[in-house]
Amino acid sequence: MPKSLGMVSGLIVGLAIGTGGLETSLLGLFADYWGVPLTLWVIVFIPWAAFVWGAIPYLPSAAQRRPKDKNYKKVKEPPPVHLT
User: For a tag site, which of 21, 44, 52, 78 has the least CB within 10 Å?
Assistant: First the structure.
């Protein structure tokens, strides 16, 4: 791939422009049905949805969150203090 850097960058730019065109068409259809104010709110939350979707593969699984030591015991909570 190092020899075809121009082709790769052209494909990436073309994909970005094509995706933007499709998104614009879909958002225009959305605005026709539900109105411009709601469409603007949808546009605000699209980057947040993309961030969450992109972060999901990097979240630790339940097995990774468990302690490695099998003899691990939870720390007991201190007894409650009774004020009289």
Answer: 78
- Cβ atoms < 10 Å from Cβ of 75: 5
- Summarize pLDDT for 9-60 with one digit per residue, the tens: 999 999 999 999 999 999 999 999 999 999 999 999 999 999 999 988 877 7
Gap between the Cα atoms of 49 and 18, Å rounded = 20
Could you tell me the two tokens for 3?
A: 């020899």
Please state the pTM of the whole predicted model. 0.55
Domain boundaries, the chain: 9-55
CA–CA gap between residue 38 and residue 46 (Å, rounded): 13
Residue-wise pLDDT for 57-70, tens only, equals 877 776 666 666 66
Ramachandran category for residue 35: left, alpha or beta (phi over 0 → left; psi -120 to 50 → alpha) = left
Residue 24 and residue 34: Cα distance in Å, rounded?
15
